[in-house]
Amino acid sequence: MPVTPDDGAGLGFTAVGLYVETGGTLAVVTVSGDARTFTVGDFSIVPVGVEQVMATGTSAAGIHAYRV
To answer: Between the CA of residue 53 and those of 13, 67, what are the distances in Å?
Structure first.
């Protein structure tokens, strides 16, 4: 499912991981409520429980969420 980074709204579900087409910085709020920032490369899979992908701090693009 495509993800648009947003500082105000969460995903509406818990993602079990993210796929990133174009690398950069990825700022997220994890399922435990922690704010985390990752640097990822092109075509990366990030296996982390995510509630929100933040616009501020995210430069990666083509973000897709894996959900169950």
So the answer is: 12, 14
DSSP letters for 3-64: ----SS---SS-BSEEEEEE-EEEEEEETTS-EEEEEE-TTEEE---EEEE-STT---EEEE
Structure letter (DSSP) for residue 66: E
Which one-letter amino acid corresponds to residue 31? Answer: V
Q: Kindly report the pTM of this predicted structure.
A: 0.92
Q: Which tens digits make up the pLDDT trace of 12-29?
A: 999 999 999 999 999 999
Q: How far apart are CA 57 and CA 14, in angstroms?
A: 20
